[in-house]
Amino acid sequence: KKEFRPWADQDLQDDTEITRGDDDEWVENNEEEDLAHVPYSPQRYPEETMLQRAKDFYSLMSQRRSVRFISPEPVPREVIDKVILTAGTAPSGAHTEPWTFVVVSDLDTKHKIRLIVEEEEEVNYRQRMGDKWVHDLARLRTNWIKEYLDVAPYLILIFKQTYGILPNGKKKTHYYNEISVSISCGILLASLQNVGLVTVTSTPLNCGPQLRLLLKRPANEKLLMLLPVGYPAADATVPDLKRKNLEEIMVAI
Ligand code: IYR
Fold it and tell me: Locate the Nitroreductase domain: which residues (predicted)?
């Protein structure tokens, strides 16, 4: 029986690529370098300070919401640059840093992205997703019309590099590339929240190949996530969702 998994992107191979075609195209990672190890002693806080910082960070993050109504008001480019630099601090398999963040502010490119995403998402909602999934999303009032793709001052498209390409053209393995890039997206979301910007984690199903070509990204890169970024619109609304409490999400043994 054929599995029905409409959410599985047809292009996004979500395992580290192990089916290597031609063996001599691949090399060991960091073949020649001997890596020095250096002392590390980060900031340590008194216990009361730890608790206060834990509470403050929770308070900040608990205010994060997925926002689909974004203001066209400009956002300083330097803020976006630092937020992306922060996302790049994520841990990655064998420190391969398998991410590319494409930041789009050009109006024409944003509009082309909108046309690609809306055309594909309409097929997703009408055909690929199926009645149950569409029904499960109805209460979020999301559909295939994505006005934020034109309106948001920045679109950040996060690509995972399924393998690396060295200066000599050889390929190197990007272990756990999907989970590594997903962690960096989490840090990106936290950094955006930290500066008072909003976004919605959109995963445009089956738009990857077209968007990759539009943005002139190489074939080893696959679109993982698309984040429209800006200030919330003055009349923005969000669904009145509640989060699980600690007892529901934690098991202490
Ligand atoms: N990718 C679609 C559908 C969608 C899926 C889930 I799961 C959501 O939580 C929200 C939307 C879209 O972006 O509209």
Answer: 62-231
Is 88 exposed, middle or buried, given 0-12, 13-18 or 19+ CB atoms closer than 10 A? middle
Ligand 1 contacts CB of residue 205 (under 6 A): yes
Instruction: For the full predicted model, state whether its pTM sits above 0.80.
Output: yes
Q: Which atom of ligand 1 is nearest to the CA of 203?
A: 1
ipTM of model: 0.87
Q: Is the CB of 137 under 6 A from ligand 1?
A: yes
Structural contact between residues 6 and 132, judged by C-beta atoms closer than 8 angstroms: no
194: Cβ below 6 Å to ligand 1? no
